[in-house]
Write a structure and sequence with these properties.
mainly alpha, MetI-like fold, 2 domains
Length: 292
């Protein structure tokens, strides 16, 4: 008796998961590129409009038909840099930002090291409270105290007030950075004969340079952009750039061309600094994200 062999019928071949992955990956890439373009345009559109408006007259700024096609002029920059002497305001902003950042680093880095190594969490909360308190609530008592000390209108009061913003930021960035550094390095240095201060200066501090650079750059940027403290506490010769922009705003009208040119003068230096230092900011922030 001969047995007949029957071949099993094969159903439709199902597509394997590996064949579906390229479509999903391609869709994800398209979505990511689209989202990236939308975000970049959302951030760049105001900057592009600001730059184009700085090259227009006030009449062209109000004319929608001349949004992109117009005759550029440098009269606004001449008004800002030559007639209103904005270079002195640039110096004021740079000096106040540099001095407040340097003094905040000088105080904040050792303070953050002490809070990290001796687990001074309550002191850290006090520093955080100084960062959370709105600065506008301190302007009236500050103005009263500093006016009695005859410091209003000078550089010292601006530097001290900007340190109120920079110091808590530096302490918290450096605390997380020191927490991520192994304590064994300092213990080994002390075994080799260094004092605790010597171990901090020769071992810990050089390793913490990325964190110090990150804290310093962010503090400088915040001080450069600070408007509220300088508006109340600065004088005629110590105005910073954000305050000096208000010279183009009057009760009856606004010089939009000069205002946009002044805004470009304020924005370009800090954008250049952020562009060339972004890798240090990212490396400094991510270095303190993990322990060990």
């Amino acid at each position: 008796m001969t047995a007949t062999l029957t071949r099993p019928t094969l159903g439709p071949v199902e597509s394997s998961p590996r064949r579906r992955r390229p479509r999903r990956a391609q869709g994800y890439r398209i979505f990511r590129a689209t989202a990236l373009v939308v975000v970049v345009l959302a951030f760049l559109a105001p900057l592009v409009w600001m730059f184009l408006a700085s090259l227009k007259t006030n009449v062209d700024i109000y004319d929608a038909s001349k949004s992109f096609v117009f005759t550029p002029t440098l009269e606004n920059y001449d008004t800002v840099l030559a007639r209103n002497n904005y270079l002195s305001f640039v110096f004021n902003s740079f000096w106040v930002a540099f001095a407040s950042t340097a003094l905040s680093l000088l105080i904040g880095v050792p303070a953050a090291y002490s809070m990290s190594r001796f687990t001074m969490r309550r002191s850290a909360v006090v520093v955080l409270m100084a960062r959370i308190i709105p600065g506008v609530s301190l302007l009236v008592p500050w103005y009263y105290v500093f006016s009695n000390l005859r410091l209003v209108g000078g550089y010292s009061v601006l530097i001290i007030s900007h340190m109120f913003v920079a110091l808590p930021l530096i302490v918290y960035i450096m605390m997380s950075f020191f927490d991520s550094m192994p304590l064994e390095l300092e213990e080994q240095a002390q075994v080799d004969g260094l004092t605790p201060i010597g171990a901090f200066l020769r071992i810990t501090l050089p390793l913490a340079v990325p964190g110090v650079a990150t804290a310093g750059i962010l503090s400088f940027i915040f001080s450069w952009n600070n408007f509220m403290f300088a508006l109340v506490l600065s004088g005629a010769t110590t105005k910073t750039l954000p305050v000096a922009i208000f010279n183009f705003v009057s009760y009856a009208s606004i010089d939009w061309g000069g205002l946009m040119a002044a805004a470009v003068v304020v924005t370009v230096p800090i954008m250049v600094i952020a562009l060339f230092t972004q890798k240090y900011i990212v490396s400094g922030l991510t270095a303190g994200a993990t322990k060990g």
